[in-house]
Amino acid sequence: MRPLIAAVAIVLLVSACALAADQPQAQDDWISLFDGKTLNGWQVGKNAESFKVQDGMIVVNGLVAHLFYMGDVKNHDFKNFEFKADVMTFPSANSGIYFHTQYQEAGFPKIGFEVQVNNSHKDPKRTAGLYGVKDVYEAPAKDNVWFTMEIIVRGKHVITKVDGKTLVDYTEPDDWKDPNRRIGHGTFALQGHDPGSKVYYKNIVVKPLPD
């Protein structure tokens, strides 16, 4: 009888472990910023037609415009975080992902940092560079292919990755002078750069980290 009980116990234990493995782990929890159907929680001012939702993606194509996250997650005010988005560029596309920024009705955001999205545009500053601060000049991804962009901010330290490869590892110096472009806090924004640029974004998620 005892061997049978032991065998049953082993089967139950293995089943429990398998079930646990299927459950999301706390350390892997990510919060979605885009529902895949609407732009609920996002706001754009001038040239709003540059952004639309199609087939579960945000399609960016049109005149200069910026789509700001203004939703409920962290009251759209992030300091330390991990951010991920799947991105596809098309030939000659130029876009960007801003962080620590704030809503602006028109023009290029004056507050915060831009992580470049550009694999073949005439601007030589390429994808994953911290624009104008620590630029990348060799494209880490290709047009017409999905890639995953990651941005990690902890304190004054910023890391950008494409498909798991680190492209930028930057720590803001203590004597940094620019009052607008400095590590602090704020929201995210997606950039529409020009009518010749077409970019897709999907699976936009964030993991807030302790301040």
Write the layout of secondary structure elements.
Layout (H helix, E strand, L loop, with lengths): L1 H21 L8 E2 L9 E3 L6 E4 L2 E5 L3 E5 L11 E9 L5 E7 L11 E5 L29 E8 L2 E6 L2 E7 L15 E6 L5 E11 L3
Antiparallel strand pairs: 1-13, 2-5, 3-4, 4-13, 5-12, 6-9, 6-13, 7-8, 7-12, 9-10, 10-11
CATH topology: Jelly Rolls
Order of helices and strands: HEEEEEEEEEEEEE
The proportion of residues forming helix, as a percent range, comes to under 10%
What fraction strand?
A: 35-45%
Please give the CATH class.
Mainly Beta
Number of helices: 1
**Spans of 5+ residues with little confidence (pLDDT < 50)?**
4-27
Shape: globular
Structural class call reads mainly beta
Q: Please give the CATH architecture.
A: Sandwich
Oligomer class: single chain
Radius of gyration (CA) equals 20 Å
Largest sheet: 8 strands, antiparallel
Q: State the end-to-end distance.
A: 56 Å
Number of domain modules: 1
Could you name the CATH homologous superfamily?
Exo-inulinase, domain 1
The total strand number stands at 13
Mean pLDDT: 90
Q: How would you characterize this protein structure?
A:
The structure is a single chain. This protein has one helix spanning 2-22; strands at residues 31-32, 42-44, 51-54, 57-61, 65-69, 81-89, 95-101, 113-117, 147-154, 157-162, 165-171, 187-192, 198-208. The protein has 211 residues and is mainly beta. A hairpin with a 2-residue loop joins strand 10 and strand 11. The chain is built from one helix and 13 strands. The protein starts with a helix and ends with a strand.
